[in-house]
Design brief:
Length: about 150
């Protein structure tokens, strides 16, 4: 029997949601935040896919021999860098300042929020924004990558 270990990446995004791992179309396990689980599978070729809500990963095809040991990592493709964090805080400050000063959200504040959003989610991510992953890129929201392969001889 082959051993397939699946690690969930240590990421802040989706921290409160479980990833469902499908093997050949059937849900086998759920992975919580920073969790690792191991499956024992017979030798063969498998299609692995991870899902959370309506978004998922691309299919990952793996062939396992009888004594093979493989480790995969599943994580979210959205990464947040320090510039995006700063712009998020700035956007929140603009919104909060508008509400505190004028007791409403002003058109100027909305314009600034839109500009901050464009810079943060479109320019800094090179078009791979949160909206991309929730729409046309929904099958690339999660990733699956090999961490370690040990093949028996």
């Amino acid at each position: 029997m082959a051993t397939l270990t699946i690690n969930r990446a240590h990421q802040f995004i989706n921290r409160l949601r479980n990833y469902r791992v499908l093997v050949n179309g059937q849900e086998m396990i759920q992975l919580g935040y920073n969790e690792q689980k191991t499956l024992t599978l017979s030798a063969g070729t498998y299609i692995i896919r991870a899902k959370v809500d309506w978004v998922c990963s691309e299919e990952y095809i793996i062939s396992l021999g009888d004594q093979d040991v493989q480790t995969l990592e599943i994580g979210c493709s959205i990464t947040i860098n320090n510039y995006q964090k700063i712009l998020s805080i700035l956007g929140f400050g603009v919104l909060l300042g508008s509400i505190l000063m004028y007791e409403t959200i002003t058109p100027i504040a909305l314009g600034l929020l839109l500009a901050i959003w464009v810079v943060r989610d479109v320019v800094l991510t090179k078009g791979k924004s949160f909206l991309y992953y929730l729409s046309t890129g929904r099958s690339k929201y999660l990733y699956i990558k090999p961490l370690r392969i040990s093949v028996s001889h």
